[in-house]
Design brief:
Chain lengths: 334, 488
């Protein structure tokens, strides 16, 4: 009698819980870097429709954006992200190493080292290119005001920094020369925003600076959204192949019961529908079909990878951006 | 004369200042008129450079402000309002809210041979610690400081498994009595009705609760150690043979979402609890019943005469059922409930001596009307104004009335089977009729004064004679209970 009463109660509770679970939309938090706001607004809608059609379940994806390094710090500090879609692998490595909420080999779990798209760094200049900016050398000339975010907090800024470094190193032949080159470049930076979107605001809306070292997609977006300002895009002779990665934050997703949908959310980034959305937002798709479709919208540029130039993100982070790295050596002296 | 001289002086000074102010512009205009194109270009470049510098300064200030705002968001928030103090972590996942309840009474007993003494009384003095941790776990710890010892009233943690399913673990109110489940500071009267004598109170266990159908139906189901009739769990009450008590409550508010419906405030339901209880002569698991004036008016026999074997104890199944309802419409509110409580009792533990089932019943019908027009709700009255005579505001006033009754089953006194051994102590009421009227004055959201008058008619058990003066039942009870309450 006693056992049957308990079983009845458990069954009733389970039925109620089951009914409630069935009705509730699942919610994901995507913690991303600064310029991806518009991309993920469109992508989230596409994924929600895809997931609903596939499973019948409603999914709501909340977005959080900021400087990539800053966002990684927030996740390490406890921000309950189901997925992270950051500017560089080093930031997700930092989450894996410091918070231990995902395995250190997270990058192997999805194609292309978990980067569903690539991008690069270009220059955005004002109408008519009044300072005659053509390549990296023009950015260190006296009187040229350069806009780039803070590499301590922004993933985009780290790509910028390393692209400039490698350009100078190849041209002048040594790390010391590269360091001096970057020092001169940073001396021309009047405002250090914490993220790429902040730098866009500084250059585009506050009319500060002669040239903005920008994510390629951000530069095209600014050009498209502010046609009256006549911005021009200058593609440097050498730039870096940026591979923004994505990962499920395993421990958070497990606790929230969202592993399945979070994984599907990232996997769907590789679908043709998602790759088309990626191309529309001026990121470089990894699928051949979408890449071919959108190839004409990008200027030709010689690209190098972080691995070949700096031995990977871990080393680059340690040498240049950790406390006491080259950035601190240059910038603290400023 | 003096006026015209000072006017002329003012005009001269104004002309001089104007000339000084305009001098640079005049000079610049002359310069521009004679300057070479290179000079103009240089001036333009200089202005552009200054403009850039100004913009850079402004932007850097903007970034500093943004950084300060972002930093502030990382700091815990401390708020104090209406006497409530709260600390919330920056991410909102953890919080501690400090609340309190203090009730000071003055009680006056009239025309009484039953000799209850007039007195001031600290009825309740509670600090309530509540909040959440790890985002989804809510907690309440409520110690009671009034009385001779400090005790813990509530101590539980709950979490929402889904919006409709919450799980609660700890010590909490058993989900049976409607008035019992209403927070004490917001009840119509200073004391709950005599019907609540039959409602199990706080107990230790686990509860599942929530609401479905868009809040139209709420449910509670609990498994607890078990307490009978108005009791709170104690360490002794944990010893009832290891059997648990099962309680459940379904309460419908079918029109709760119909904003303009006159039935929006209608709620009705049924609750009940059942469990197996085995008391001992040292821990009978039975409770005395009290009048509105908080005098004991009924108790079961204890081991006073001649031996422990003459003590009445719980000896089997106890069950309570309670249909209940409330209705609130504008300033009007009514709350009604009925209890039927039956329990297997015997004299002496481990025996079947005089074993029999005793069934008691009770009811409560309370109404209230807020004279100042505020809404009456199950969660109380929020005054539109606070007491401030200089501003001509006096807070809110509410009149309340109540009729309630308690009927102790005859079998408690006389064994129907013929063994005429009463389970009750001497001098007990078998029926109580209670009438009450009152006035509540809400001086602010946190301060309430209550003035209640209660009349309790006692009917003695068959064969009992009216006790001599000095007993609670020597005469009907007439009592005025006044209270000042701070609840935040």
């Amino acid at each position: 009698m006693k056992t049957s009463r308990i079983l009845s109660l458990i069954a009733a509770v389970a039925a109620l819980a089951g009914a409630a679970f069935a009705q509730k939309p699942v919610e994901l938090l995507n913690v991303s870097y600064d310029p991806t706001r518009e991309l993920y607004v469109d992508y989230n809608a596409a994924f929600a429709a895809h997931w609903k059609a596939k499973t019948g379940q409603d999914v709501v994806v909340k977005q959080s954006h900021g400087g990539s390094g800053k966002q990684a710090r927030s996740v390490i500090d406890g921000l309950r992200a189901d997925v992270v879609t950051l500017a560089l692998a080093g930031d997700i490595d930092a989450i894996a190493n410091n918070a231990r909420v995902l395995p250190s080999d997270w990058q192997k779990r999805l194609p292309n080292n978990s980067s569903p798209y690539t991008s690069t760094i270009v220059f955005l200049v004002r109408q008519g290119n009044p300072k005659g900016i053509k390549d990296w050398d023009d950015l260190v000339k006296p009187g040229v005001s350069v806009i780039t975010p803070n590499p301590k907090t922004s993933g985009g800024a780290r790509w910028n920094y390393l692209a400039a470094w490698e350009y100078a190193k190849r041209k002048q032949g040594s790390d010391e020369a590269a360091k001096e080159f970057v020092r001169k470049l940073l001396a021309n930076v009047p405002v250090l925003d914490t993220g790429a979107r902040g730098s866009t605001t500084t250059f585009v809306q506050r009319d500060i600076g002669d040239v903005f070292i920008s994510w390629e997609n951000e530069a095209y977006l600014a050009k498209k959204e502010f046609p009256g300002k006549g911005f021009e895009i200058v593609t440097p002779s050498l730039s870096i192949l940026a591979e923004p990665p994505v990962a499920v934050v395993d421990r958070v997703a497990k606790r929230k019961g969202t592993v399945e949908v979070a994984t599907a959310y990232l996997e769907y980034l590789y679908s043709e529908e998602a790759q088309d959305i990626i191309g529309k937002h001026f990121y470089r798709p990894t699928s051949k079909k979408a890449a071919a479709k959108y190839a004409s919208q990008f200027g030709p540029v010689k690209l190098f990878t972080i691995d070949e130039a700096f031995g990977g993100w871990t080393k680059a982070q340690k040498d240049h951006f950790d406390d006491g790295g080259t950035f601190d050596q240059i910038y603290l002296k400023k | 004369m003096n006026t015209s001289r000072s006017t002329a002086r003012a005009a001269t000074i104004a002309a001089a200042l104007t000339a000084i102010a305009l001098a640079p512009f005049t000079a610049r205009a002359q310069t521009a008129a004679t300057a070479a194109p290179d000079d103009i270009a240089a001036l333009r470049a200089q202005i552009a450079a200054l403009d850039q510098k100004l913009k850079v300064l402004e932007r850097n200030l903007e970034i500093k402000d943004e950084a300060a705002v972002a930093e502030a968001k990382k700091q815990p928030k401390i708020t104090a309002s209406d006497g409530r103090f709260e600390i919330v972590s920056a991410d909102g996942a953890n919080s501690l809210r400090l609340r309190g309840l203090v009730q000071g009474d003055a009680r006056f007993y009239f025309d009484d041979a039953n000799a209850a003494t007039d007195k001031f009384l600290l009825r309740r003095a509670r600090l309530i610690f509540e909040g959440k941790f790890a985002e989804r776990f809510n907690y309440v710890v409520q110690p009671e400081f009034a009385g001779s010892t400090v005790s813990i009233l509530d101590a539980f943690v709950n979490t929402a498994v889904t919006p409709s399913v919450n799980v609660q673990v700890g010590r909490f109110k058993t989900p049976v009595g409607l008035e019992q489940l209403q927070s004490d500071p917001v009840a119509f009267f200073n004391e709950r009705s005599i019907a609540t004598n039959l409602a199990p109170n706080r107990d230790v266990g686990v509860q599942v609760f929530g609401s479905v159908l868009e809040q139209r139906l709420s449910y509670q189901a609990s498994i607890t150690n078990g307490v009978i009739d108005g009791g709170n769990s104690t360490p002794a009450s944990d010893n009832n043979e290891g059997d648990f008590t099962y309680a459940g409550r379904l309460f419908a508010t079918p029109f709760v979402n119909d904003k303009d419906s006159a039935l929006k405030g209608l709620g009705f339901g049924v609750a009940g609890a059942t469990g197996n209880y085995r008391g001992s002569t040292s821990a009978t698991l039975l409770n005395a019943y009290r009048s509105d004036g908080q005098q004991n008016i009924f108790a079961y026999r204890t081991n006073t005469t001649p031996t422990a074997a003459n003590t009445t104890v719980a000896a089997g199944t106890a069950t309570v059922l309670s249909p209940q309802a409330h209705y609130y419409y504008g300033p009007f509110g009514v709350l009604a409930e009925y209890f039927r409580s039956s329990a297997d009792l015997s004299i002496g533990s481990g025996t079947t001596q005089n074993a029999r089932e005793v069934t008691n019943t009770a009811y409560n019908l309370s109404v209230g009307y807020v004279l100042t027009g505020e809404d009456s709700t199950f969660r109380g009255v929020t005054p539109k104004s606070v007491f401030n005579p200089s501003a001509g505001t006096w807070g809110a006033f509410e009149v309340v009335a109540r009729v309630a009754g308690l009927d102790i089953g005859d079998e408690a006194f006389i064994d129907p089977a013929g063994a005429a051994v009463s389970l009750a102590a001497a001098n007990n009421a078998t029926e109580v009729a209670s009438y009450g009227v009152g006035l509540n004055w809400y001086l602010s959201k946190t301060i309430r004064a209550g003035f209640d008058y209660f009349h309790n008619d006692f009917k003695l058990a068959k064969g009992n004679t009216v006790p001599a003066s000095g007993n609670a039942l020597s005469d009907d009870e007439q009592v005025v209970i006044t209270r000042v309450q701070v609840s935040f």
